[in-house]
Write a structure and sequence with these properties.
The protein is α/β, with parallel strands linked by helices and 240 residues long. It is built from 11 helices and 10 strands.
């Protein structure tokens, strides 16, 4: 049996003296997809930051395709094939759309042509500065820029937060196409639980920094009572 793409074993991590995650263990196979659900403050974003190497790891281990990356610097993890779309987007406001996309590009399947095919709106605005884009367009740009690094695993931190419904539809369609057409692996942190579950194969629910529940996404989606108990009905329905 081949090694998983990413594995976490008994990870305990946080910031400074504060512990946010405790006893986190899971694996992502090649081409796998995982929804990370939970109420606010349960450690979802911290989990992605820990995978990228931006938190203080107190215990446990992380492995990438069988290689220990527990002490590997964040930029080395990115070079190894980890891509990240941060909640804050973090685009370069003074660079054009095209410059944002090409500044960190690496050789591979995803190039300007394929990104513009995925997001035609970005091609229309390729000469616009980052700070002249709408919030939804900035999110598309952040997504496209991450893909331009040609990652093997993409970490998505609440990519649909605060966006208009039409932009949500465009982004969810892009994620589905990325998965169906390219077999891309990703971890999705998302408050819209039904959407997250509809786009992923597996799911975990965090509670107080630990995994309170794990299941096939389809099974959890078909169990509204459990979903309501774990994350709350309003969140599960995608309501504000």
């Amino acid at each position: 049996m081949s090694d998983p793409l990413l594995s976490l074993k008994d990870v305990r991590a946080g910031y400074g003296d504060a512990v946010v995650l405790d006893g986190i263990s899971f694996e992502i196979p090649e081409n796998g997809s995982l929804a990370v659900l939970g109420r606010n403050g349960t450690g979802k974003s911290t989990l992605l930051l820990t995978i990228m190497g931006h938190t203080r790891l107190r215990r446990g281990a992380l492995a990438w395709r069988g290689r220990d990356i527990t002490r590997l610097a964040a930029h080395k993890r990115a070079q190894a094939g980890l891509g990240w779309v941060a909640q804050e987007r973090d685009i370069f406001p003074s660079l054009s759309v095209e410059e944002n996309l090409t500044v960190t590009a690496r050789p591979g399947r995803w190039d300007l042509r394929s990104i513009y095919a995925l997001f035609p709106r970005l091609e229309e605005r390729r000469g616009n500065k980052g700070n002249h884009l709408s919030g939804g367009e900035q999110q598309m740009l952040a997504f496209g820029r991450a893909l331009m690094t040609n990652p093997a695993l993409l970490l998505l931190d609440e990519p649909l937060e605060g966006l208009a419904p039409i932009i949500v539809d465009e982004l969810t369609d892009a994620i589905r196409r990325m998965t169906a057409d390219e077999g891309a692996a990703f971890i999705l942190v998302e408050q819209h639980s039904h959407l997250a579950l509809s786009m992923t194969a597996e799911a975990i629910v965090l509670e107080r920094g630990s995994i309170a529940h794990r299941a096939k996404s389809a099974d959890l989606l078909a169990d509204p009572a459990t979903l309501e108990r774990l994350v709350g009905l309003a969140v599960a329905d995608g309501a504000a």
